[in-house]
Amino acid sequence: MNTIRSDFSIAPLPFPDALAAACLQQFQTTPPLVHCLTNEVVQSFTANVLLALGAFPAMVVEAEEAAQFSTIANSLLINIGTLHHSRAESMLAAIQAANQSATPWVLDPVAVGGLTYRTDFAHQLLSLKPAAIRGNASEIMALSGLATMGRGVDSVDSSVSALPAARQLALQVQTVVAVTGEVDYITDGLRDFAVTGGDKLMTRVVGTGCALSAVVAAFCALEGDRLHHVATACRVMSQVGGQVSQQVAGPGSFIPAFLDGLYQLKISDLL
Amino acid sequence: MNTIRSDFSIAPLPFPDALAAACLQQFQTTPPLVHCLTNEVVQSFTANVLLALGAFPAMVVEAEEAAQFSTIANSLLINIGTLHHSRAESMLAAIQAANQSATPWVLDPVAVGGLTYRTDFAHQLLSLKPAAIRGNASEIMALSGLATMGRGVDSVDSSVSALPAARQLALQVQTVVAVTGEVDYITDGLRDFAVTGGDKLMTRVVGTGCALSAVVAAFCALEGDRLHHVATACRVMSQVGGQVSQQVAGPGSFIPAFLDGLYQLKISDLL
Amino acid sequence: MNTIRSDFSIAPLPFPDALAAACLQQFQTTPPLVHCLTNEVVQSFTANVLLALGAFPAMVVEAEEAAQFSTIANSLLINIGTLHHSRAESMLAAIQAANQSATPWVLDPVAVGGLTYRTDFAHQLLSLKPAAIRGNASEIMALSGLATMGRGVDSVDSSVSALPAARQLALQVQTVVAVTGEVDYITDGLRDFAVTGGDKLMTRVVGTGCALSAVVAAFCALEGDRLHHVATACRVMSQVGGQVSQQVAGPGSFIPAFLDGLYQLKISDLL
Fold this sequence. Notes:
- The structure is a homotrimer.
- By secondary structure, chain A is of the alpha/beta class.
- The first copy, chain A, has ten helices and nine strands.
- Chain A has a nine-stranded mixed sheet with strand order 1-9-8-7-6-5-4-2-3, with helices on both faces.
- The radius of gyration of chain A is 17 Å and the shape is globular.
- Chain A starts with 12 loop residues before the first strand and ends in a 7-residue tail after the last helix.
- Chains in contact: A-B, A-C, B-C.
- Chains A, B, C: Keywords: ATP-binding, Kinase, Magnesium, Metal-binding, Nucleotide-binding, Thiamine biosynthesis, Transferase.
């Protein structure tokens, strides 16, 4: 069904600076309240990233409250990195309430593929209409049909190799998919954008990918073209991360510098 | 019953430097062991704040152990930010053991008001004699009777607008209430103090309020006038936070600088 | 059975630089994937420490997945700092799978001794053949038979006073024991090494001991003499921690500087 857009030879266009700047302006004008059901390891960093950008993070975890809060929040993040049965129930309750109140929700399918429990859960979530999905190449390939076509699914897959899977997944689920890596690709299955930037140092800091998914969720709260909003989330994180990586001595000093960079980011910095 | 002290026109006195200095000296002489049952997002920052001040944090979470540890610890913090059923049981077990062994415990009623489960739980806890309660204006108003008198309960309430609620809550529960914000007010319902300082930047760092509640719990371990001890906890955090905010580039570099500032704090710095 | 090596007068030899350098080279050549079932407070710092050293941390917590992942990982860390029933089940499942697939696992018996639930659990784990145990003096004494011989078990015990307990525990369990403090002692019951370095400032940063246990687990993934590998883990953390402590203003700035130091560590720095 998706033969044309699976063609590797059609290279995605760079995401235009002017669109990114317009989206960031919209974001800063109406900073969203983001409900984060995310993994245990990255909660603090995730909250600090959202706060640095001017958004309002909140983690409400008991099922009945998570559902109640999803109707109040502007968007919802579901990250399955440290999934367990009790939290999975809360996630389902939160997603159902989000869908009933038209709160967009975003899936980060951490480590989907090799591990059975989370892989089954993530596939179940696909039917619940995520507004966007953000993952690395291996995760996006594992979530899509292409991933079962005999390719090795591991973290050394490059993001471009997962672009056909991302496009197919976006069409299947009717969502926006961001497959991130050295280059980030953002697609709704019919249109794609590429975002460059970032730095390998970011892979030595826990939670940079998870925090990006939270920022994607935050941008999904905006009215307008979701493909542009998700691409802007990627752009913001890649640009600040890339710049900061040049200025620091290692992954330890990256963390405070990155948060400062997000806090200081101006719309004109994207132009 | 509380008509006089609800009068807005009686402005609280600034908390005297000499009292703060004496309390800090007492604290440094007998650094407390603080049992923290706090939310998932802020556990690491909370522990680092207590360690920087010279106190000893410990998080013991299974109900039977939490109860056992409450009899050993010098004080107990209960923060309901990421409350769930299993942790709520541990909190109740810890509080009951704390009360039986005269270990003071402190309540941080995170986000009480809009969310039903935690609001019911927090009201239940009020009957279990907290030594102190620390919250923002909206939380304190939601916990007190005044909060139901038609006012909007949200995070834009200023702390002074919650002072009548704080006084009433303190009298009702026979506790010390700290309602914190641009100015912190600390009251036992009959006496109040004001603590200035801090900086808006602190609202862009996750856990500064939660960590303050842990420091309040630490100071509640001291013998003497609890109102003074709670006010000193607020003073220490406001002073160091305010100073550090002037020296840093954003919320990222605030975190290490704040911990360093707490670590370096001398009694003479309060005078 | 252990009378000779319990003799206090036989001082352990310093761990040779050349052995440490060779182990670190082996580590950097084959950076391990480390499954961490660790406490809630230190997960982020633990992951960042492993990433800074070039290893790959992963936290997979639901019992069935934890078991599945233990067969894939190169080693497993079990830290009982915030033990609760559900996580204890996951730990047992992970350990059993690890043992079936010859994945080495390491025990950090946080706060064992005074608290009944975790103490019983830790003793149960001893029969499941940990590759190494890393604890402070009080914890190692509590785990061993010597600990019940009337000595006070508290955190002021020096590591040298726990050396006989460490040797006995190592022989009993047929494992490597690292008892860490101002000096670290690493023993398999028949041979011991001493590692100096570190700094008192590290006791004011939450998770330095827990992160050391994760690094011990990472080094236990290596082929060869496990005693040397565990000693190298201690050496790396002590050396970087000691150097960094001289350069920072307090525990806040220690954290980024420590991670940077681990990231920048060269084999020649150990010689």
